[in-house]
Write a structure and sequence with these properties.
The protein is mostly beta strands. It contains no helices and ten strands. Strand 1 and strand 2 (19-20) form a beta hairpin. It is elongated. Residues 118-123 have low confidence and may be disordered.
Length: 123
């Protein structure tokens, strides 16, 4: 895994130690307002991915989404730029306003028709 230099901001509850994506409110687990923000690497592992041929109005087709696990076991849903990444592959994640966008490593595995890993991309 290479470090792209990208970082993401996460939040940790000072009361129950829950880790989550930053929000304007209190801790989603215990409702404490003792929230600390910190940064982690923007690299994460794909837990699940799908391609929507008929996405909601306003989104182009195909629309690729992936559930990505970041450091500290925080998971997020991201729009994938490129093809459907294989489960277990590493992607670079960045925040774009209220959305998260993921980009697969150029030599990482791509998913086959069943969504399972295949050989690394070539060319």
């Amino acid at each position: 895994m290479t470090d792209t230099g990208e970082t993401l901001e996460l939040a940790r509850c000072g009361s129950c130690q829950a880790r989550f994506l930053p929000n304007e409110g209190s801790c989603p687990r215990c409702a404490s307002t003792a929230i600390e923000r910190y940064t982690v690497s923007g690299l994460g592992e794909v837990v699940a991915a799908t391609e929507l041929e008929f996405p909601a109005e306003g989104w182009r087709s195909p629309h690729v989404l992936a559930l990505i696990e970041l450091p500290d076991a925080v998971r997020l849903l991201a729009i994938v730029e490129g093809g459907v990444p294989a489960v277990g592959s590493v992607v670079s994640v960045r925040r774009d306003g209220q959305l998260y966008r993921a980009h697969a490593e150029p030599d990482g595995p791509v998913a086959d028709e069943r969504g399972e890993g295949e050989s690394p991309r070539t060319g």
